[in-house]
Design a protein that fits this description.
UPF0232_actinobac; UPF0232 protein GII31_00020; 3 strands; about 40% helix; DciA-like
Length: about 180
């Protein structure tokens, strides 16, 4: 059997591997591109790379991060809340939901937030002694709230003790001090 000695056979020896064939094909493609007047071999970071109309980059995936890549859930939730104006409501929820963490277990065991309106947080203490103590450390509590839930969310505290019993029974009442003479 006679061996074909055509033009194709002497360019590619039979002992070359796949890597050498691919390297030779790449060099031939680069030479053809240079002959056509194109810039070759400068990679993606080339300063001469053309941009699309409007100066924007292409949006397909590559080696770098892309807007279509998976995002952390916390980042997406923050973007949604910022876009919809929910930041203040989320901050209020953090004050009430994370009260134990923000002020610490000692204070949380004896006082609870009841209302947040116009940047004033209403806190009810379990006793008048605890209400007095909280009034003394009010600045520290405000600093903890600002660090935990955000600055400017709460600007002042209204601390109250336990509610006194009501002597009003029914829809009608008589003005005056009420039955106080029965207590000793």
């Amino acid at each position: 059997m006679a061996e074909d000695t055509g033009a194709h056979n002497h360019d590619v020896p039979r002992d070359r591997g796949g890597y050498e064939l691919a390297s030779k094909a790449l060099e031939e493609a680069r030479a053809a591109a240079r002959a056509a007047g194109k810039s070759v071999g400068q990679g993606r970071a080339s300063p001469t790379r053309r941009r699309r109309a409007g100066g924007s980059r292409r949006s397909w995936s590559g080696a770098g991060p892309d807007a279509r890549d998976p995002q952390p859930l916390g980042r997406l939730a923050a973007q949604i809340s910022a876009n919809r104006g929910w930041q203040a409501d989320i901050g209020k929820g953090m004050v009430f939901g994370m009260w134990d963490t923000i002020v610490g277990p000692d204070i949380a065991a004896h006082a609870q937030p009841t209302l947040l309106r116009d940047k004033v947080l209403h806190v009810q203490a379990e006793s008048t002694a605890w209400a007095t103590q909280l009034r003394y450390i009010q600045a520290q509590v405000l600093a903890k709230i600002a660090a935990g839930a955000g600055h400017g969310l709460v600007t002042s505290l209204r601390i109250t003790g336990p509610t006194a019993p009501s002597w009003k029974k029914g829809p009608r009442s008589v003005p005056g001090r009420g039955p106080r003479d029965t207590y000793g």
